[in-house]
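Q:
My hope is that you can spare some time for a protein that puzzles me. I hope you can help me see how the letters and the tokens relate. Thank you; the sequence and its tokens follow:
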Amino acid sequence: MGYMQNPVSVVPMSINLPNTNYAKGGVVLKELREKAGLSVPELANIVSEGAYHDILKYEQGYAKVPYTQVNIWAEALKVSPGYLARRLVEHYDPTLYDILYGDDTLKLSAVDQ
């Protein structure tokens, strides 16, 4: 946390930093965007009605892509929705990722050994 000098006292400054997990997901998004050959404005035109600042928020870790938009993003980035969701959940919510993909086998119940 940074501090501003005040003649009377030291006052803490609040700094809006990106969420670390979201930033890791943002690296994935940027990598996929570049691999798809899209610029930030081009992707913005496809997924957020031209609001390129939204794309930057996601890539820099200030927000996460809502799971309700994964299909739109996946189509724009030329990957499957399942692939994109898995890559994002891996970073956005590591605990959920471990629950869903930890042993990488799908079992219906504890009986399914």
In short: The longest strand covers residues 3-5. The chain has a mean pLDDT of 84. The CA atoms of residues 33 and 77 lie 6 Å apart.
